[in-house]
Design a protein that fits this description.
single chain, 182 residues, alpha/beta, 6-stranded parallel sheet, globular, binds ligand FNR
Length: 182
């Protein structure tokens, strides 16, 4: 049985490399995972005054995450951390329903620089350790795709064999982890 994965795209721009990377993974692993891209673009700004009566964008976003078997975060780096839009979306997940708690989850990320969003991913791991979020996070398997703009062709397929091999390994490790913890 395929695992339904809500892939939270941590960038809100149209030409996001992180989105392209997830679109590539969606095709490459279609026999193993049903990856559904979840946008953060319509998630309203979190405000504790309205958390018990959330607006439509937040409701949809939370539902998409809650209804999935697993979660994938695709993370860009903004100023050595995750983008504010992603943090805002995560804040919604931490309230009324704790949609992420216990959900098998893994993280990937890319940037045009060499470090592949490592600092953002370190912050994300710290954020997710809050008890109101606390997914079952795949240990290790840290995916830092640097110089992403040089690793995609015009069809947005990954052309770098080392990256493909590593993604294959991480996806297999995640499926093994999922079957163990679920
Ligand atoms: C960036 N970028 C960036 N890159 C990086 O390696 N470290 C950083 O601290 C930052 N900071 C940063 C701040 C802001 C406001 C922007 C707009 C960009 C570059 C960024 O990671 C790059 O544009 C990625 O391609 C963004 O991800 P998406 O949108 O392509 O998925």
């Amino acid at each position: 049985m395929s695992i339904k994965v809500a892939a939270i795209i941590g960038s809100n721009r149209k030409e996001s490399y992180n989105r392209k990377l997830v679109e590539y993974m969606k095709k490459r692993y279609a026999d193993k995972l049903v990856i559904e891209l979840v946008s953060i673009n319509e998630v309203e700004m979190f405000n504790a005054d309205i958390e018990n009566d959330p607006p439509q964008g937040a409701i949809e976003f939370k539902k998409n995450v809650r209804n999935a078997d697993a979660v994938l975060f695709a993370v860009p780096e903004y100023n050595f951390s995750i983008p504010g839009a992603l943090k805002n979306a995560i804040d919604w997940l931490s309230r009324s329903g704790n949609d992420l708690v216990g959900k098998p989850t893994f993280i990937i990320g890319s940037s045009m620089g060499v470090l592949g969003s490592v600092r953002a991913q370190m912050h994300l791991r710290e954020i997710l350790s809050n008890p109101n979020l606390q997914p079952q996070l795949l240990p290790g398997n840290e995916v830092y795709v640097g110089a992403i703009h040089t690793k995609l062709n015009e069809q947005n397929e990954v052309t770098d064999q080392a990256t493909i091999d590593f993604l294959d390994k991480v996806v297999n490790n995640f499926i093994e982890f999922y079957n163990k913890v679920k």
